[in-house]
Amino acid sequence: PKGFSIHDIKTFDPADVLARLIDTVPNAHFAVEDLDGGYRFNKPFPSYALGDQNVETPLEELLHHPVSRVVVLSPDHDVDQFLKIMDEVGLQSVSYAIGYTAWLDIAPKGIDKGHALNQLRDNYNHTSNRVLVMGDGRNDIEMFQWAQSLGGHAFAMGQAPEEVKLAASAVTASVTEDGVAQVLMSLEGLEFIQ
């Protein structure tokens, strides 16, 4: 792969989750992330969504191999409809988050951004109270909880959904208003690399 290497990968069997979702949202686009970081999908996703290592595959073939992630895109639903549908499906055996559209990311139970950042923090012996995270999506809520549990700071971007803002310790300006830069420039002693 270009610019990264995989050191620790968590997988799960997607068969049960996919079968339930196929029954619930049969017209959706389904993709699975393979162990090499590539994706197999049953219907095309937007070109920006999955990177360039993609293979279109019959839906049945997505069910039979361990994967690190499942992605579901349902063009037939808006985000509120999709949130309601996912509440009714009850995906307790996995971790999942819904994006700004009817986009669903599913990972092994307990695997989220907070888990990954904690692993990095442990690997690099980073002190707990110097953690700062920023995000704007529902998939950032666990990361916010993790940072705050360590005494760190969690900033939601101004354009984030209300539930994301409520999970953060503070809210900064939106992306278009340079919210990340505003937070970084407010940090004492921050040195910028030219």
CATH topology annotation of the largest domain: Hypothetical Protein, Haloacid Dehalogenase-like Hydrolase, Chain: A, domain 2
Proportion of residues in extended strands: 15-25%
Query: Which architecture of the largest domain would the CATH scheme give at its second level?
Result: 2-Layer Sandwich
- Ranges where pLDDT stays below 50 over 5 or more residues in a row are none
The level-1 CATH class of the largest domain? Alpha Beta
**How many strands appear in the DSSP assignment?**
9
Order of helical and strand elements: HEEEEHEEHEHEHEH
Helix proportion range:
25-40%
- Please indicate the count of domains: 2
For the largest beta sheet, what order do the strands appear in spatially?
A: 3-2-1-4-6-5
Average pLDDT, all residues? 88
**Oligomeric state as shown:** single chain
Q: Which class do the helix and strand fractions yield? A: alpha/beta
- What's the story with the biggest beta sheet? 6 strands, mixed
Shape: globular
Radius of gyration: 18 Å
How many individual helices? 6
